[in-house]
Design goal:
single chain, 356 residues, alpha+beta, Immunoglobulin-like, 3 domains, six-stranded antiparallel sheet
Amino acid sequence: MGRYIGLYLNKGQGGGGLGPTEPYDRSSGITTDANNNVTAIDLGSMAYSNMVYDAGNVGLVTGYTETIGGVSDNWEVEYNSQNLVTKVTKFDPNAPRYTATSNMYTVNENNTPVIYCNTENVPAGTQLYWDSTSDSDLTTASLSLSLSTVGQFATDQAQVQVEFLQDTLTEGTETIYFRIYTDAAKTDLVATTPAITINDTSTGAGGGTSQNDPVDISQWSTFASGRTSSDDGKYWVTDGTTTAQTYCIFREGIREMLAEAENERMHLMFFIEIAKPNLFERVLVLIAQAMFGIFYLVMYLLFTRTAHRMIGYFEDEAVKSYTEYLKKVESGKIENFQAPLLAINYYNLDRNAKLS
């Protein structure tokens, strides 16, 4: 026999605490379903009907209609984690009602669960809105999706399919909730899903996988400029036949980029130590840097791919220039003098190191 509210709980105060209890005979006045849960109780002047049970707990009543002296009221019952009653609330059966659920409550990164909002007394065509307690765990594309209107795919239901981000970060198991609102500003919260567990299937920002298309080394600048934060991770870079190196575009990889920027700055300092430009030449360099900085900023904002490709060409020319310079040093056209102390310290060279 299923449990129900009112006949024993709050004994002497009636169902839901609204009236006196009356004795009853188990052989009559009680209706049960196939699961032996009570669906209706008729005690003459008192009656209970429309019994609703929690799907996960047989016999746990979550709602019912109570009739005393011909007057009916509807009640909702809330429980704590020990399945003890914590609240009994009167509700209007004609008021809008919303319940948020999912078809998956344990997901891996890259999984695409469907979030549902089941409704009652909500007109078909109504637009609802959603967010989550951890939007950073969802793909950018998912965050731009809207709930379907009520009834678009299923009667009295709105839904949206989201995708969890495979972020390449080792974060451990996480928990996320999806929330439903009636307004675009997302201030009127009407439903929240049960907790959804996200298994951490990332191995950290490492190793390109066979899913990553090989990128020719000559196309690196174009490839890098086409990445977004949703593409975090390492990618294979090849010379067309063999793997040359792996790169990480974002997060941990930014440290490599900063180190390279520092390396370029040191190259400039070495050049100054070797060439020893005079004051006029230094001023020209500063003016050229200012002009190029403004020019490159505008180009990067308007033509990002072109800006990346241009730097790629600069680097190609730098390699050629260094190669030609070293050939002249080795051929004796340029004196192979002592390397600057700054370079010796930076690269941890022998104290007697020379240019070549």
